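Async update (no meeting this week)

Hi team, since we skipped the sync, here's where things stand on the single-chain job. The sequence we agreed to prioritize is pasted below, unchanged from the tracker. I ran it this morning and attached the output directly underneath so nobody has to dig for it. Comments welcome in thread, and please keep replies under the output.
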Amino acid sequence: MVLPDQAKELPDARRMVKVIRLCRKTAVKGVSALSLHKLVLPLLVALSLAVPALAEPVDPVAVVNGEPITRAEFISTLEEVAGAQILDRMITVRLLLQANKKEKLVAPEEIDREFADVRAQFPAETEFLAALKANGLTPDSLRQQIEAKLVLDRLAVKGVTVSDEEIAQYFEQNQEELGEPEQVRARHILVTEEEEAKKLIEELKAGADFAKLAAEHSKDPGSQGHGGDLGFFRRGELVPEFEAVAFALKPGEVSSPVKTEFGWHVIKVEEHKAAVPATLAAKREEIRSILLKQKTKQPSEVLAELRTESEVKILWQ
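Output:
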């Protein structure tokens, strides 16, 4: 018996085996937005394109010590190993494409844009086509995968609405989290001894550049290469001793030596942003998106509904 992994080295069987491999791999390497596991199902459109080529099962796909393995044996083994799974997924893709044809959920222009986004991630057309071929796809089958994914997304939110009352209620319950808290952007120099910190402060008073001193003396590997810059941070993100001083300083001021569990710090505040309370008007659309996402149907639920609404006869045994 020839298993799929063994068969992948056989040139004549390459298209079919790549379809099987789609059960485990993403559609196009490096394109996370179209990875098949995120589609819930591997969208095996390529299989339907491969089937006609397998209509003549007489020629061998390999010869082992003079004994041929026929295409019929090969196809039979593929059916045994993954036939039911592949057929089920082909049915799912067909249902999604039929839903789009019936309800006009996704416009051709949307598919074109998504396709162009994928294509743009490859510098040359040859690289794009090679990536498709390596995954058993063609430009047409990729377009079908994109269409199926977009249809699945649309069906997941079909009929979902968010009222103004729901938005207002969410705002009242989450107003503090929706606002922008007070933030500080600071630099620091971390050393092991207090005396070293004092000496650095004297150099700064004499006009030394803080970023340069941080690059030369700081023991913090995360910020040393950035002139000691820690970026913006909120209360509760750093150790309390450090934060207490940083939030008390005005922009441009340099601290006295500050002791923490990591050592001694010299802190310079670059910017200080005051807290900005959230307003319902400013956060309305953000809240709407949050609530829509919460109400969105799971892909499995969408697909189950599609099956229930459709007549599917399984003739393959």
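Quick observations from my side:
Residues 4-160+297-309 form one domain.
The mean pLDDT is 85.
Reply here if anything looks off.
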